[in-house]
Amino acid sequence: MANSYEYKLSRGDKMLALIRKVFHNYPEFRHDSLKHVARFAPFIPFFSGKPDLSQTLQRVVTFADHSNSLYFGNPIILAAGANKTAKRICDYANMGFGGITVGTATRNVREGNTHRPRVGFIEKERAIHNSMGLNNDGVEAIAARVDSQLIKAHKKGLCVGVSVAETPGLTDEEEKIKDILESFAIAYKVGDYIEINVSCPNTGESRLDLDTRFSERIFSEIMKLRSTFGVRKAVFAKLSPDLSETALRTLLDLLTKYGVNGVVIGNTFPTAKMTQLNMQTPYESLKVLRQDGDKGGLSGRPLYENMFRSVAFVRQNYPKLKVMACGGIDHGYKILELLQMGVCAVQCYSVVAFRWMAAHEMREELTYALKANGFTSLRDFDAAMEQ
Predict the structure, then answer these.
(1) Closest CA to 128 of 292, 266, 2, 295
(2) Which position has the higher pLDDT, 19 or 328?
(3) Three-state SS letters, the chain
(4) Residues 118, 204, 171, 217: is their CA dihedral positive or negative?
(5) Which domain holds residue 110?
(6) Does a structural domain hold residue 5?
(7) Alpha-carbon distances, residue 145 vs 87, 103, 110, 287, 305 (angstroms)
(8) HSE (CB half, 13 Å, CA atoms) of 363?
(9) 372: Cβ–Cβ under 8 A, 6 or more apart, which residues?
């Protein structure tokens, strides 16, 4: 059973709440302002921003198929969607992250959903719902930026993954396969790991993780293509958090069959199903975020318990699959809880809208939690877990 760890609101948290209130009519401005905070964090005293270059929380993730190991400054990754462009990647080390997934990238440039607003905040739940629609600069531009910054990012303690997805709007199956394989090949050349997003609920089209036959073809072709490259890098599949146990098992079976290294559990939760979560906010009160009346995908604190159950299922039934946990992670004790279950890293994004310098705060809490359990570092913890 997942624990709902609480944190005391700091002055920074209260300032964030004031900013959200002042700019309540401009949710996308607030959504996009993270890049400015990341850039200027080291230069403004009360921001307390600097890269995490200590060794206490460093983590090395290795793979049974001898894919390149992943080196994280700490196991807290900024999830895809925060830096869609791959510009100024290193700035996010200032916020305390040990890794970042850029994108999600598609084969060509996308404006995304043209409806406004595309983002809504649910204050009392510490949650966000969005329907951005995979807006991005195209995988070629994103990959070129990653390539030019990767060495510097590593020096800052950042492991850099690239998230890719099928371009929405394609109807022919062969064209879809060609599209995602091209994006994968371009991203593969530069990323430390590649994340295949087959679960985005925000484009107005059917999710690929609900189409087992097509998902199987995608991953069989992707892993076949990977085998032709000289360097073996890890491939993760990003799955939706609303899958039934039967659907999840079917997907995990095929991912294991084709040698996919791991999964990200999960993506944003469809707001149309939000009654399945422990939430007080009614669906009817949310803003419409798309022309078809949809209200997008939900992220933030309410997803933790659901995500925790899914992670537990994967770890218990598919122990060879690496797991990155994503959904409602806003406290260092939650991170330790997930690490104890065997996840290799965690991803978060929404928490930065509600918690000041969230990764720094969670890093301190994780360090404290490790010491309270008798460990001086994450390396000591990992050694104990392997015994």
Answers:
(1) 295
(2) 328
(3) CCCCCCCCCCHHHHHHHHHHHHCCCCHHHHHHCHHHHHHHHHHCHHHCCCCCCCCCCCEEECCCCCCCCEEECCCEEECCCCCCCCCCHHHHHHHCCCEEEEEEECCCCECCCCCCCCEEEEHHHCEEEECCCCCECCHHHHHHHHHHHHHHHHHCCCEEEEEECCCCCCCCHHHHHHHHHHHHHHHHCCCCEEEEECCCCCCCCCCHHHCHHHHHHHHHHHHHHHCCCCCCCEEEEEECCCCCHHHHHHHHHHHHHCCCCEEEECCCEEHHHHHHCCCCCCHHHCCCCCCCCCCCEEEEHHHHHHHHHHHHHHHHHCCCCEEEEECCCCCHHHHHHHHHHCCCEEEECHHHHCCCCHHHHHHHHHHHHHHHCCCCCHHHHHHHHHC
(4) positive
(5) 11-386
(6) no
(7) 7, 11, 17, 35, 36
(8) 29
(9) none
Summarised one tens digit per residue, pLDDT across range 64-79 is 999 999 999 999 999 9
pLDDT (mean) for 202-222? 75
Amino acid at 342: G
Contact 40, 351 (CB under 8 A): no
Distances (CA, A) of 107 to 115, 165, 210, 346: 22, 8, 22, 27
Task: Read off the pLDDT of residues 296-312 as tens digits, 9 standing for 90 and up.
Answer: 999 999 999 999 999 99
Tally the domains of the chain.
1
Q: Which CATH number fits the domain that encloses residue 116?
A: 3.20.20.70
- Residue 2 domain flag: no
pLDDT higher than threshold 50 for residue 203: no
Position 182 in a domain: yes
Of residues 221 and 44, the one with the higher pLDDT is 221
Q: Which residue has the tokens 């990992």?
A: 382
Which residues pair with residue 160 across a beta bridge?
100
